[in-house]
């Protein structure tokens, strides 16, 4: 029997991935691991190819003629990868492999949460800006960013599961209908229905004696009788709206695939291949969503705008409520929001985390200090098509009460800067800087370095905030220099376990201890995807308090 097996090169553990895949324990396939795929018992093994996310794997020398072997390393990738086995003369076999994150990082769900919250924060901050143009729900003339497509792909998996649940037990409504039946078939017709039927159509007279009709009819009867019926129907307003949304999403993905095909960059083979791969995936996602429209609740529904109205059904039925939440996510994913940092694959989650931290803190700052001091003019660039570009490189945003948040601000050598503030060694670019300046001689500068690491990985990241705190200086008129960094903290998704005192708390939990942070104005705070706006605001308040207590 032909079978494709997967083997862990480190442990030697083997399991089948096609056909009839074996159930594997979560964590069996993980980032940075090395695995072998082995095709056994196939006469076409010599010409077989195996592709992961449309990229052919390099074949290894096999031990027998009916065996093929490939080596695969997921790299820094967590989530679902699509595999395709091609054998000559046979249809391609497609299956999925789920890779789990390395223990030092978070999961794909956290990636999705970050994309959702970045887009949500973008809309919230955009609404507080001076722009008065709505964000378009479409692709326009620009291909969508990779992070948005990764986010949409994960939503489609859940969408299929939700639609399957709804289709298995859909809500119905009783509707009144009128059927026109010959008199000999209208045995259940009521008196009022018979009398109404006299108003139109031909009247027939009974010839049989004695009459079998009631005396009131005087031997007459309508040839056709209009009978009212109450039918169970799936044509609910909610089903119409859901069907319209499914059709809209499928069309959007189809257009996105065409844009990706047309906009493939010249010269860079890797980028060209990535664009072609995502164009293929978008078409496949479009077909999957189109197939959902064939489910009975949506196939029988009429037309409606592609917009859900929060009705009682969406509020009270768990399955329909899940669909409503997915609709909100899909709208975030297809909105015309662009930016360099959204154009990231899942493997570069750490860069997305940096942008997520900045936008979360900006939004928290507007709530903490009041929206009157917020100025996001430099954060957004709108275009004629209604799209919004997130200008997330070297951006400074005033958030109120004299505080400013800077994203990836560059500090060059201090002697070439007009204000004589900068680095004494090389150009440095902290992820986030919170600054409060009352005068040139009296200012507060908090460096926040975002690190998408947990556990032991945090200890390796300490050198960056040590460097920022020591190397950023200001030159006085006398020619002497002094440090300008008031405090330096790591931003990380790690949730620590703290002891009674920081000296009794092992690393990396010691960095989070309140006494350690306040005493040294140095350490780490937790910023984790899924935290509420109030929790983010509390974290910002904590950082500002620790860094400014005792400073005049």
Poorly predicted ranges: 130-139, 339-347
| Secondary structure category | alpha+beta
Major β-sheet strand ordering = 17-18-20-21-24-25
Assembly state here? single chain
Query: Mean pLDDT, nearest integer?
Result: 79
Q: Beta-strand percentage?
A: 15-25%
Helix content: 25-40%
What is the strand tally? 25
Q: How would you briefly describe this protein structure?
A:
By secondary structure, this protein is α+β, with helices and mostly antiparallel strands.
Structure explained in plain terms:
It is a single chain. This protein starts with a strand and ends with a helix. A six-stranded mixed sheet has the order 17-18-20-21-24-25, with helices on both faces. It is 34% helix and 23% strand. It is extended, with a radius of gyration of 32 Å. The longest helix has 26 residues, at 237-262. It has three domains: 3-99, Immunoglobulin-like; 137-167 and 236-334, no CATH class; 349-548, no CATH class. The chain contains twelve helices and 25 strands. Strand 15 and strand 16 (388-390) form a beta hairpin. It is α+β, with helices and mostly antiparallel strands and 552 residues long.
């Amino acid at each position: 029997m032909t079978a494709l097996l997967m083997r862990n090169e480190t442990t030697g553990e083997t399991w089948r991935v096609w056909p009839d895949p074996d159930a594997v324990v979560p964590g069996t396939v993980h980032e940075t691991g090395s695995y072998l795929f082995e095709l056994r018992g196939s006469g076409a093994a010599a010409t077989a190819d195996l592709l992961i996310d449309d990229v052919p794997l390099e074949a290894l020398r096999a031990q027998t003629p009916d065996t093929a072997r490939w080596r695969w390393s997921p790299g820094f990738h967590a989530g679902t990868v699509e595999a395709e086995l091609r054998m000559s003369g046979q249809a391609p076999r497609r299956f999925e492999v789920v890779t789990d994150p390395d223990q030092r990082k978070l999961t794909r769900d956290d990636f999705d949460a970050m994309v959702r919250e970045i887009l949500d924060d973008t809309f919230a901050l955009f609404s507080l800006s001076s722009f008065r143009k709505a964000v378009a729900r479409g692709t326009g003339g620009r291909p969508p960013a990779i992070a948005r497509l990764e986010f949409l792909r994960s939503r489609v998996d859940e969408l299929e599961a939700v639609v399957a649940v709804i289709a298995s037990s859909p809500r119905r409504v009783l509707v009144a209908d009128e059927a026109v039946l010959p008199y000999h078939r209208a045995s259940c017709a009521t008196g009022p229905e018979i009398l109404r039927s006299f108003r139109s159509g031909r009247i027939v007279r009974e010839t049989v004696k004695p009459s079998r009709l009631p005396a009131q009819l005087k031997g007459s009867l309508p040839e056709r009788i209009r009978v009212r019926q109450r039918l169970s129907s799936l044509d609910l307003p909610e089903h119409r709206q859901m069907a319209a949304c499914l059709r809209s999403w499928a069309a959007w993905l189809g257009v996105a695939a065409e844009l990706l095909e047309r906009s493939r960059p010249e010269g860079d083979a890797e980028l060209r291949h990535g664009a072609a791969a995502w164009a293929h995936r978008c078409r496949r996602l479009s077909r999957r969503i189109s197939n959902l429209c064939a489910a009975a609740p949506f196939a029988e529904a009429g037309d409606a705008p592609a917009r859900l109205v929060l009705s009682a059904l969406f509020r009270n039925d768990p399955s329909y409520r899940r669909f409503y939440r997915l609709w909100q996510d899909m709208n975030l994913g297809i909105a015309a929001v662009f930016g360099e940092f959204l154009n990231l694959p899942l493997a570069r989650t750490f860069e997305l985390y940096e942008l997520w931290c900045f936008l979360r803190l900006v939004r928290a700052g507007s709530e903490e200090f009041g929206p009157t001091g917020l100025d996001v003019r430099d954060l957004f660039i709108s275009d004629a098509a209604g799209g919004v570009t997130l200008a997330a490189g070297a951006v400074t945003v005033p958030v109120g009460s004299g505080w400013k948040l800077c994203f990836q601000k560059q500090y060059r050598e201090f002697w070439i800067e007009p204000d004589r503030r900068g680095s004494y060694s090389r150009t440095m670019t902290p992820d986030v800087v919170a600054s409060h300046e009352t005068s040139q001689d009296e200012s507060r500068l908090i460096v926040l370095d975002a690190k998408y690491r947990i556990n032991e990985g945090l200890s390796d990241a300490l050198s960056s905030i040590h460097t920022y705190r020591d190397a950023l200086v200001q030159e006085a008129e006398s020619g002497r220099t002094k440090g300008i960094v008031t405090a330096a903290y790591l931003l990380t998704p790690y949730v620590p376990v703290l002891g009674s005192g920081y000296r009794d708390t092992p690393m990396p939990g010691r960095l989070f201890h309140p006494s350690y942070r306040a005493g040294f104005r140095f350490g780490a705070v937790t910023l984790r995807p899924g935290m509420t706006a109030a929790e983010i605001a509390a974290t910002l308040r904590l950082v500002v308090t620790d860094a400014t207590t005792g400073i005049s």
